[in-house]
Design goal:
The chain is α/β, with parallel strands linked by helices and 290 residues long. The chain folds into two domains: 108 residues, Rossmann fold, CATH 3.40.50; 171 residues, Glycogen Phosphorylase B (Rossmann fold), CATH 3.40.50. The strands form two sheets. A six-stranded parallel β-sheet has the order 7-6-5-8-9-10, with helices on both faces. Strands 1-2-3-4 form a four-stranded parallel β-sheet. Helix 9 crosses helix 12. The chain is globular and about 60 Å long.
Length: 290
Protein backbone atom coordinates (compact mmCIF):
# COMPACT_ATOMS: atom_id res chain seq x y z
CA UNK A 1 0.00 0.00 0.00
CA UNK A 2 2.85 2.35 0.83
CA UNK A 3 4.36 1.82 -2.62
CA UNK A 4 1.04 2.49 -4.31
CA UNK A 5 0.61 5.70 -2.35
CA UNK A 6 4.15 6.73 -3.19
CA UNK A 7 3.83 6.20 -6.97
CA UNK A 8 0.10 7.05 -7.17
CA UNK A 9 -0.92 5.07 -10.30
CA UNK A 10 -4.15 6.12 -12.01
CA UNK A 11 -5.45 2.57 -12.15
CA UNK A 12 -4.63 -0.53 -10.14
CA UNK A 13 -5.21 -4.11 -11.22
CA UNK A 14 -4.72 -6.89 -8.67
CA UNK A 15 -4.44 -10.57 -9.54
CA UNK A 16 -5.93 -13.07 -7.03
CA UNK A 17 -8.53 -12.21 -4.41
CA UNK A 18 -6.14 -12.31 -1.48
CA UNK A 19 -3.29 -10.10 -0.20
CA UNK A 20 -2.71 -8.25 -3.48
CA UNK A 21 -6.39 -7.43 -3.75
CA UNK A 22 -6.47 -6.14 -0.17
CA UNK A 23 -3.60 -3.75 -0.91
CA UNK A 24 -5.16 -2.60 -4.19
CA UNK A 25 -8.55 -1.92 -2.61
CA UNK A 26 -6.98 -0.13 0.36
CA UNK A 27 -5.37 2.26 -2.11
CA UNK A 28 -8.29 2.53 -4.52
CA UNK A 29 -11.75 1.06 -3.84
CA UNK A 30 -12.30 1.12 -7.62
CA UNK A 31 -9.32 -1.15 -8.32
CA UNK A 32 -9.88 -4.06 -10.68
CA UNK A 33 -9.38 -7.55 -9.24
CA UNK A 34 -8.92 -10.71 -11.30
CA UNK A 35 -10.33 -13.91 -9.81
CA UNK A 36 -8.04 -16.87 -10.43
CA UNK A 37 -9.72 -19.45 -8.22
CA UNK A 38 -12.68 -20.15 -5.98
CA UNK A 39 -11.55 -20.14 -2.36
CA UNK A 40 -14.71 -21.91 -1.21
CA UNK A 41 -14.23 -24.89 -3.54
CA UNK A 42 -10.55 -25.22 -2.69
CA UNK A 43 -11.37 -25.19 1.01
CA UNK A 44 -13.85 -28.03 0.45
CA UNK A 45 -10.96 -30.19 -0.76
CA UNK A 46 -8.07 -28.75 1.29
CA UNK A 47 -9.22 -28.28 4.91
CA UNK A 48 -6.26 -26.36 6.32
CA UNK A 49 -6.06 -23.22 8.42
CA UNK A 50 -4.20 -21.51 5.59
CA UNK A 51 -6.99 -22.23 3.09
CA UNK A 52 -9.62 -21.10 5.63
CA UNK A 53 -7.75 -17.82 5.99
CA UNK A 54 -7.73 -17.46 2.20
CA UNK A 55 -11.47 -18.08 2.18
CA UNK A 56 -12.02 -15.23 4.65
CA UNK A 57 -9.76 -12.94 2.63
CA UNK A 58 -11.68 -13.68 -0.56
CA UNK A 59 -15.05 -13.05 1.06
CA UNK A 60 -13.82 -9.68 2.36
CA UNK A 61 -12.44 -8.71 -1.06
CA UNK A 62 -15.73 -9.54 -2.77
CA UNK A 63 -17.62 -7.39 -0.26
CA UNK A 64 -15.29 -4.42 -0.71
CA UNK A 65 -14.55 -4.63 -4.45
CA UNK A 66 -16.55 -3.13 -7.30
CA UNK A 67 -14.76 -4.31 -10.45
CA UNK A 68 -13.83 -7.93 -11.09
CA UNK A 69 -12.69 -10.14 -13.92
CA UNK A 70 -12.49 -13.94 -13.90
CA UNK A 71 -10.26 -16.23 -15.92
CA UNK A 72 -13.11 -18.41 -17.23
CA UNK A 73 -16.91 -18.43 -17.45
CA UNK A 74 -16.91 -21.28 -14.94
CA UNK A 75 -15.01 -19.22 -12.38
CA UNK A 76 -17.17 -16.16 -13.00
CA UNK A 77 -20.35 -18.15 -12.40
CA UNK A 78 -18.92 -19.84 -9.31
CA UNK A 79 -18.08 -16.59 -7.51
CA UNK A 80 -20.89 -14.39 -8.83
CA UNK A 81 -23.10 -15.11 -5.77
CA UNK A 82 -20.43 -13.42 -3.62
CA UNK A 83 -20.71 -10.02 -5.31
CA UNK A 84 -23.25 -7.76 -6.94
CA UNK A 85 -20.55 -6.47 -9.28
CA UNK A 86 -20.33 -7.62 -12.87
CA UNK A 87 -17.65 -10.17 -13.66
CA UNK A 88 -15.99 -9.85 -17.07
CA UNK A 89 -14.25 -12.96 -18.40
CA UNK A 90 -10.64 -12.48 -19.49
CA UNK A 91 -8.65 -15.73 -19.82
CA UNK A 92 -5.09 -16.34 -18.78
CA UNK A 93 -2.65 -15.64 -21.60
CA UNK A 94 0.09 -17.82 -23.00
CA UNK A 95 3.21 -16.90 -24.93
CA UNK A 96 3.03 -18.65 -28.30
CA UNK A 97 6.29 -20.63 -28.64
CA UNK A 98 8.40 -21.05 -31.76
CA UNK A 99 7.07 -24.30 -33.18
CA UNK A 100 9.82 -24.90 -35.72
CA UNK A 101 12.13 -26.19 -32.95
CA UNK A 102 9.67 -28.71 -31.53
CA UNK A 103 10.56 -32.38 -31.40
CA UNK A 104 7.86 -34.37 -29.63
CA UNK A 105 8.35 -37.96 -28.52
CA UNK A 106 6.90 -40.28 -31.21
CA UNK A 107 3.75 -42.34 -30.83
CA UNK A 108 5.84 -45.51 -30.92
CA UNK A 109 7.82 -44.42 -27.82
CA UNK A 110 5.42 -42.05 -26.13
CA UNK A 111 6.15 -39.74 -23.25
CA UNK A 112 3.10 -38.72 -21.28
CA UNK A 113 3.51 -35.76 -18.95
CA UNK A 114 1.47 -34.98 -15.86
CA UNK A 115 2.03 -31.71 -13.98
CA UNK A 116 0.49 -31.45 -10.51
CA UNK A 117 1.28 -29.40 -7.42
CA UNK A 118 0.01 -30.97 -4.22
CA UNK A 119 -1.07 -34.54 -3.50
CA UNK A 120 -4.69 -33.55 -2.89
CA UNK A 121 -7.87 -35.53 -3.59
CA UNK A 122 -9.16 -33.00 -6.10
CA UNK A 123 -5.97 -33.29 -8.12
CA UNK A 124 -6.88 -36.96 -8.67
CA UNK A 125 -3.30 -38.08 -9.29
CA UNK A 126 -3.95 -41.65 -8.20
CA UNK A 127 -6.34 -42.14 -11.13
CA UNK A 128 -3.75 -40.66 -13.48
CA UNK A 129 -1.12 -43.15 -12.32
CA UNK A 130 -3.50 -46.12 -12.56
CA UNK A 131 -4.59 -45.05 -16.05
CA UNK A 132 -0.95 -44.88 -17.11
CA UNK A 133 -0.44 -48.39 -15.77
CA UNK A 134 -3.36 -49.57 -17.94
CA UNK A 135 -1.96 -47.79 -20.99
CA UNK A 136 1.35 -49.57 -20.52
CA UNK A 137 -0.40 -52.87 -21.21
CA UNK A 138 -1.08 -51.59 -24.74
CA UNK A 139 1.99 -49.37 -25.13
CA UNK A 140 4.85 -51.00 -23.17
CA UNK A 141 7.37 -48.35 -24.24
CA UNK A 142 5.35 -45.52 -22.69
CA UNK A 143 7.01 -43.36 -20.04
CA UNK A 144 5.31 -40.97 -17.61
CA UNK A 145 7.06 -37.77 -16.63
CA UNK A 146 5.54 -36.78 -13.28
CA UNK A 147 6.26 -33.11 -12.60
CA UNK A 148 5.42 -30.90 -9.63
CA UNK A 149 5.21 -31.05 -5.85
CA UNK A 150 2.80 -34.00 -6.01
CA UNK A 151 5.62 -36.17 -7.32
CA UNK A 152 8.49 -35.80 -4.87
CA UNK A 153 10.66 -38.88 -4.49
CA UNK A 154 10.14 -40.64 -1.20
CA UNK A 155 6.66 -39.24 -0.69
CA UNK A 156 3.07 -40.25 -1.53
CA UNK A 157 3.40 -40.70 -5.29
CA UNK A 158 6.42 -42.99 -5.04
CA UNK A 159 4.69 -45.08 -2.38
CA UNK A 160 1.56 -45.30 -4.51
CA UNK A 161 3.54 -46.44 -7.57
CA UNK A 162 5.34 -49.07 -5.50
CA UNK A 163 2.16 -50.36 -3.84
CA UNK A 164 0.28 -50.53 -7.17
CA UNK A 165 3.18 -51.71 -9.35
CA UNK A 166 3.11 -48.67 -11.64
CA UNK A 167 6.27 -48.84 -13.74
CA UNK A 168 8.11 -46.40 -16.02
CA UNK A 169 7.23 -43.34 -13.95
CA UNK A 170 9.94 -40.67 -13.72
CA UNK A 171 9.34 -38.62 -10.58
CA UNK A 172 10.74 -35.20 -11.45
CA UNK A 173 9.18 -33.34 -8.52
CA UNK A 174 9.31 -29.53 -8.24
CA UNK A 175 10.75 -28.18 -11.48
CA UNK A 176 11.53 -24.63 -12.69
CA UNK A 177 8.83 -23.32 -15.00
CA UNK A 178 11.12 -23.01 -18.02
CA UNK A 179 12.11 -26.66 -17.62
CA UNK A 180 8.47 -27.67 -17.21
CA UNK A 181 7.73 -26.07 -20.58
CA UNK A 182 10.66 -27.89 -22.15
CA UNK A 183 9.40 -31.21 -20.79
CA UNK A 184 5.88 -30.54 -22.02
CA UNK A 185 7.15 -29.58 -25.48
CA UNK A 186 9.07 -32.87 -25.69
CA UNK A 187 6.04 -34.91 -24.61
CA UNK A 188 3.65 -36.87 -26.78
CA UNK A 189 0.62 -36.11 -24.58
CA UNK A 190 -0.36 -34.22 -21.46
CA UNK A 191 -2.57 -36.00 -18.95
CA UNK A 192 -4.61 -33.72 -16.66
CA UNK A 193 -6.95 -35.51 -14.28
CA UNK A 194 -7.81 -32.72 -11.84
CA UNK A 195 -11.45 -32.79 -10.74
CA UNK A 196 -11.72 -29.00 -10.68
CA UNK A 197 -9.83 -26.13 -12.26
CA UNK A 198 -10.64 -22.44 -12.43
CA UNK A 199 -8.64 -22.33 -15.67
CA UNK A 200 -5.88 -24.93 -16.08
CA UNK A 201 -2.76 -23.09 -17.18
CA UNK A 202 -0.67 -26.18 -17.86
CA UNK A 203 -3.35 -27.39 -20.28
CA UNK A 204 -3.03 -24.22 -22.39
CA UNK A 205 0.76 -24.38 -22.22
CA UNK A 206 0.72 -27.92 -23.61
CA UNK A 207 -1.76 -27.02 -26.35
CA UNK A 208 0.46 -24.08 -27.34
CA UNK A 209 3.10 -26.65 -28.29
CA UNK A 210 0.60 -28.76 -30.20
CA UNK A 211 0.66 -31.41 -27.46
CA UNK A 212 -2.81 -32.98 -27.21
CA UNK A 213 -4.32 -33.23 -23.75
CA UNK A 214 -6.56 -35.76 -22.06
CA UNK A 215 -8.54 -33.95 -19.38
CA UNK A 216 -11.79 -33.89 -17.43
CA UNK A 217 -15.09 -33.34 -19.18
CA UNK A 218 -16.60 -31.95 -15.96
CA UNK A 219 -13.48 -30.45 -14.36
CA UNK A 220 -14.58 -26.86 -13.89
CA UNK A 221 -13.19 -24.60 -16.62
CA UNK A 222 -11.22 -27.34 -18.36
CA UNK A 223 -13.79 -28.18 -21.09
CA UNK A 224 -14.08 -24.48 -21.99
CA UNK A 225 -10.29 -24.15 -22.17
CA UNK A 226 -9.61 -27.34 -24.13
CA UNK A 227 -12.56 -27.18 -26.56
CA UNK A 228 -11.55 -29.61 -29.32
CA UNK A 229 -7.81 -29.30 -28.66
CA UNK A 230 -7.83 -32.56 -26.70
CA UNK A 231 -9.99 -35.43 -25.56
CA UNK A 232 -12.35 -34.81 -22.65
CA UNK A 233 -13.30 -37.80 -20.51
CA UNK A 234 -14.69 -38.84 -17.15
CA UNK A 235 -11.53 -38.51 -15.05
CA UNK A 236 -13.09 -40.46 -12.19
CA UNK A 237 -12.85 -43.54 -14.44
CA UNK A 238 -9.43 -45.12 -14.91
CA UNK A 239 -10.74 -47.04 -17.92
CA UNK A 240 -12.05 -43.88 -19.61
CA UNK A 241 -8.74 -42.09 -19.10
CA UNK A 242 -6.73 -45.04 -20.39
CA UNK A 243 -9.00 -45.45 -23.43
CA UNK A 244 -8.55 -41.79 -24.40
CA UNK A 245 -4.78 -42.03 -24.08
CA UNK A 246 -4.82 -45.23 -26.15
CA UNK A 247 -6.97 -43.62 -28.86
CA UNK A 248 -4.47 -40.82 -29.37
CA UNK A 249 -1.44 -43.11 -29.23
CA UNK A 250 -2.96 -45.69 -31.60
CA UNK A 251 -4.40 -43.37 -34.27
CA UNK A 252 -1.83 -41.15 -35.96
CA UNK A 253 -4.47 -39.32 -37.99
CA UNK A 254 -6.51 -38.49 -34.88
CA UNK A 255 -3.36 -37.41 -33.07
CA UNK A 256 -2.42 -35.06 -35.91
CA UNK A 257 -5.94 -33.63 -36.05
CA UNK A 258 -6.15 -32.95 -32.30
CA UNK A 259 -2.63 -31.50 -32.25
CA UNK A 260 -3.54 -29.06 -35.01
CA UNK A 261 -6.73 -28.04 -33.23
CA UNK A 262 -4.80 -27.48 -29.99
CA UNK A 263 -2.53 -25.01 -31.76
CA UNK A 264 -5.49 -23.28 -33.37
CA UNK A 265 -7.49 -22.98 -30.14
CA UNK A 266 -4.59 -21.32 -28.34
CA UNK A 267 -3.80 -19.01 -31.26
CA UNK A 268 -7.44 -17.92 -31.48
CA UNK A 269 -8.22 -17.42 -27.80
CA UNK A 270 -5.19 -17.14 -25.51
CA UNK A 271 -2.27 -15.23 -27.11
CA UNK A 272 -0.69 -12.68 -24.78
CA UNK A 273 -1.31 -9.60 -26.99
CA UNK A 274 -5.03 -10.42 -27.31
CA UNK A 275 -5.51 -10.94 -23.57
CA UNK A 276 -3.51 -7.80 -22.75
CA UNK A 277 -5.76 -5.88 -25.14
CA UNK A 278 -8.85 -7.13 -23.30
CA UNK A 279 -7.46 -5.94 -19.98
CA UNK A 280 -6.43 -2.56 -21.41
CA UNK A 281 -9.94 -2.04 -22.80
CA UNK A 282 -11.51 -2.75 -19.40
CA UNK A 283 -9.06 -0.46 -17.61
CA UNK A 284 -9.79 2.30 -20.12
CA UNK A 285 -13.50 1.91 -19.34
CA UNK A 286 -12.77 2.28 -15.64
CA UNK A 287 -10.88 5.53 -16.26
CA UNK A 288 -13.63 6.87 -18.49
CA UNK A 289 -16.24 6.23 -15.79
CA UNK A 290 -14.46 8.34 -13.20
Amino acid sequence: VAQLRHYRPEVVHAHWTYEFALAALAYDPQAMVTVHDNARIIFQYVRTLNRFFHLLLARYVFRKGHHFTAVSPYTAAAVQPWTKARLDVVPNPVVIPAHNTLVKAPLSQPIISVVVNGWHDYKNSEKALLAFKAVQQRHPAAVLWAIGTAFVRGEEAEAFCRDNDVQNVVLLGPTPHEEVLQKIAASTLLLHTSLEESFGMVVVEAMAYGVPVVAGQASGAVPWVVADGGLLVDVTSVAAIADALDRLLSDAALYKQVSARALAVVAERFPLPKVAGQYLALLAQRLAQR
